[in-house]
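Marked as duplicate of an earlier ticket. Keeping the data here for the record.
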Amino acid sequence: MATGREIAQLCGVSVATVSRVFNQPETVNEETRSRVLRVAKELDYRPNESARALSTKQSTMIGLVWDTDHRRPGWRHPYLQDLLIGLKSALSAHGYHLLMLATSGDAREVGASLADPVGYVNMTRRHHLGGLVLIDSGSDAEAFEAFAQSGVPCVALDVAVDGPRATYVTSDNFGGARDAVRHLVGLGHTRIATITGPPGNQPSDARVSGYRAALREAGLESRDEYVVSGDFYRASGTAATQRLLALESPPTAVFAASDEMAVGALLAARAAGLRVPRDLALVGFDDIEIASVVEPALTTVAQDKPGFGVAAAKAIMAMITGGECEGPLVLPARLVVRESCGAVGDG
């Protein structure tokens, strides 16, 4: 790949002129600018991002803080994969680049870990990153608060943070869960259980609150034995459903806080000789791809996964360019009715 000096020599201009073409194009006449850009494209020249950040006082590099340790399964969840596609696409469309920062075992090499978020903040400044996108892997909320207070532009995904240049993006988890349970109530179900995500996780807690709110609206009792914790993954959905079906008065409907757990619930119901939805109605949350391809297809609460990433990208870009830091961005969640839930006793 060519250097800026080589581009300057081939175009008969100074290195400073080449730099201005990429950093302050309005200061270079059109003929020279076109010549430099044409030669740069032919030789696959790319300006040094760190030097460019120093020159323009504005970085196009965004750090992604996400602990992808193999012992923490969050990175494998289909929901997060779709979200990242939206984030990266939106940043790329505006000339920004997403850089995953070293985490877990690699963190020792760079002096940064979520146990010591100061290392990440120092890395951000050392590499002239414009800001940070934060994805929680299960127990990172405390570290994210430190990031938010650092003054570095930060956008967290599904973690409430508060700071001078920090905000977060989430879905209407409460409203989505409430709509799911309202739907089951409308079908005549009165014994409705829920499989939650990990306690203390913001989306999980909001979905439990929505579940309880819908029961109160319907005048139904919230029974402790009908609230079973999971971890958003399939195996926990299976184990939780086995517990629920073993109760003296098992539920006729289950609202699972993720589609993965709802699929696990479906497998447990089949293993117990039950038919969905005749013997057990199921509703999930997320609307990942598997929700529409299992049989019966899952009724679920859809999150705008690409839109989630786009909202995060817009927020971080606005802060980098000096715009105001918006308050929490809450995206709507939408009930998608399919075949996995029906009226009580329907065959």
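See parent ticket for discussion. The radius of gyration is 25 Å.
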